[in-house]
C-alpha cells in the first residue's frame, strides 16, 4: 500500500476510523486521546490546543446530521507515525465538501513519503473536494502544493 523511502513497511498499518466505536474495537491499539496527543505533539507550532484537536476528532466521528468525516491513523505496531483528521463541511461547490483539519507525521519519520501517501489515501476516501488552511511559513505548504492543492483565497478572520 505505502511506498516509503528506506523503510520496511511490513508492520505498518493504516486505520480508517469513522465512528467513536471504531476506537473501542480490539484491532485498534490506540485511543482517540492518544491520536489527539500525537497530533498536538507533532504539529508543533503549527498546531492547536489539545482541546481543539479533540473537538475536531469528535466532529469527524459524529453521527449528528451535518457533521462527520474520518480519522486516518498510520501506525507501526503500537506507535503512531502519522494521522489525518477530515471534517465534512456539509456544503459543496462554493465551499469544498471536506476540510483537512489536521495532518501530522512523527518527527522521526519525516522525509520518507508518509505525508504524501497520507494525502493520497485521504483523497481516495473523501467524497468531493478538500480544503485546508496552512500558514504561509509552514514548510508543509510545499507538500500540499506537490499533492495538487492550489491557493484560492487568503483567509481572514474577525474574532468576536
Write a structural description.
With 160 residues, the chain is of the alpha+beta class. The protein has one domain: Aminopeptidase. It contains four helices and five strands, in the order E-H-H-E-E-E-H-E-H. The chain has helices spanning 32-43, 50-60, 114-125, 140-146, and strands at 12-17, 69-76, 79-88, 98-105, 130-132. A five-stranded mixed β-sheet has the order 1-2-3-4-5, sandwiched between helices. Strand 4 (98-105), helix 3 and strand 5 form a beta-alpha-beta unit. The chain is globular. The model has no long low-confidence stretch (mean pLDDT 89).
From the alpha carbons, calculate the radius of gyration and give it in angstroms: 15 Å
- State the separation between the terminal residues, measured CA to CA: 45 Å
- Which residues sit in consecutive blocks of at least 5 with pLDDT less than 50? none
CATH names the topology as: Aminopeptidase
Task: Name the helicity range.
Answer: 25-40%
Biggest beta sheet summary = 5 strands, mixed
Total domain units: 1
- What is the mean pLDDT? 89
Strand order of the largest sheet: 1-2-3-4-5
- The string of secondary-structure elements, in order, is EHHEEEHEH
The CATH superfamily is known as Gcn5-related N-acetyltransferase (GNAT)
Tell me, briefly, the overall form: globular
The number of helices is: 4
Amino acid at each position: 500500500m505505502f511506498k516509503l523511502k528506506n523503510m520496511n513497511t511490513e508492520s505498518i498499518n493504516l486505520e480508517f476510523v469513522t465512528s467513536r466505536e471504531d476506537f473501542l474495537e480490539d484491532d485498534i491499539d490506540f485511543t482517540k486521546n492518544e491520536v489527539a496527543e500525537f497530533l498536538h505533539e507533532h504539529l508543533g507550532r503549527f498546531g492547536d490546543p489539545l482541546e481543539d484537536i479533540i473537538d475536531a476528532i469528535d466532529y469527524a466521528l459524529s453521527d449528528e446530521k451535518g457533521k462527520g468525516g474520518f480519522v486516518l491513523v498510520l501506525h507501526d505496531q503500537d506507535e503512531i507515525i502519522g494521522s489525518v483528521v477530515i471534517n465534512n463541511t456539509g456544503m459543496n461547490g462554493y465551499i469544498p465538501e471536506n476540510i483537512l483539519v489536521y495532518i501530522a507525521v512523527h518527527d522521526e519519520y519525516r522525509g520518507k513519503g508518509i505525508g504524501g501517501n497520507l494525502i493520497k489515501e485521504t483523497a481516495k476516501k473523501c467524497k468531493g473536494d478538500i480544503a485546508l488552511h496552512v500558514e504561509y511559513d509552514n514548510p508543509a505548504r510545499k507538500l500540499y502544493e506537490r499533492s495538487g492543492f492550489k491557493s484560492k483565497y487568503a483567509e481572514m478572520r474577525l474574532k468576536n
